[in-house]
Amino acid sequence: MTQALEADAHRLVSTFVPRSERDRAAQADFASFFAAEGGPVHREAGPDHLTASCVVFDASLQHTLLVFHRKGQFWVQPGGHVEHGDDSVVAGALRELREETGIVVEPTPAPLAYDLDHHGLSSRFGACASHLDIGIAVVVDRESA
Length: 145
Known about the structure:
The protein is α+β, with helices and mostly antiparallel strands and 145 residues long. It has helices spanning 2-15, 21-33, 89-101; strands at residues 48-57, 67-69, 74-76, 79-81, 114-120, 130-139. It has a four-stranded mixed β-sheet.
């Protein structure tokens, strides 16, 4: 499964469509970690590694869902480390969404949109120095959430 995650992270990074200078810089940064082969997809790969998250919108795109991150003491979209059983970044993001909120979203062939965010972490996160987060946008019905 690690090779599939590495290939998926590379695919998402290489096909990312930058919309700003910040996006171009993020894509170049991620590309330095996720080359054609390899990449730090699991936390055991070192202090800088992949995470997957869901940016959850309602159908109107006017509301989003945040969860409180106890260790970090901040509000953030649902997400976390990908696991060895995840066969794609989307699978990891949707698993994290289900675990953290109980919301189940069926996977789509390709994400509707996604974001690349490389952020440093405080010493509260132990051996994790930074997360290379690929955020997947999903739309959920507010009544079922």
